[in-house]
Amino acid sequence: MNAATPGPVRVEPVRSGPARIGPVRTGAVRIGYEVRSYFRAPDSVFFTFLFPIIMLALFSVAFGSAPDIQAGPGVSVDYATYYLPGLVATAFLLSGTQSLGVDIAGERSDGTLKRLGGTPLPVLAYFVGKVGMVLVTVIAQVALLLGIAAIVFGVQLPTDGGAWARFAGIMLLGVATSCVLGIAISALPREGRRATATIVPIVLVLQFISGVYLPFTQLPDWLQTVAGVFPLRWMASGMRSVFLPEGFASAEPGGAWHLGIGTAVLTAWLVLGALVCLLTFRWNRRDA
After folding, report:
1. What is the pTM of this model?
2. Where's it mainly located (predicted)?
3. Where are the domains of the chain?
């Protein structure tokens, strides 16, 4: 009698614990699991976490002896300062859209999602874990990026509290938008092994047309219009409003940062991405 009693006691937390404590608390527990899994994947660490840092180092060293970038009389910055905002915005897109898209597509293909669907794990808890992982890694990534920019390359970071408040708002909205788009785009690849080939080129093209590597106004007008439809263009310009002198607003289309338009575009993508997630996400593969 006594020997049989411990059996149900050991099994009960596994089967009913997550349902009892609720999806949000279960998701909070999964954040730790997702973060550990993220850093155990070398490709994720290199192509998402370290990529913006490596690009900042390359541009800063390559153009270290070049004249500063001018935005008008007496308004100039070095190349490290100029590229920093776009690479911060890229970190949001890489960690949210690219990393989540590839990760979830792989889990769907190898049967991980199907197995999770057969457990008491709520869908909300699964997403809390994924989005929480992105937020944790983005904070660590951006902190490291800003630290290297300031300490190694001498970038002058903002000292105004309003600029940092704007930074936090753009970051939270940008990360949220990138996450829902990553979950939505994970439905595109029919097989996990095709996820990288499907998703990475999309993210890479957006970087080149959104003012990350090239001055945005140097692009053809039609390409600026196309880029203006997508979130990265507005995340990059929002970050430029934080890290670049106010005089650089004259180098933006229309001579202003257009933060209101950027917020509206990001919010629209957030809502659209959430709707697509609700319509397309499933535990099983579409061909299962």
Report:
1. 0.89
2. membrane
3. 21-280
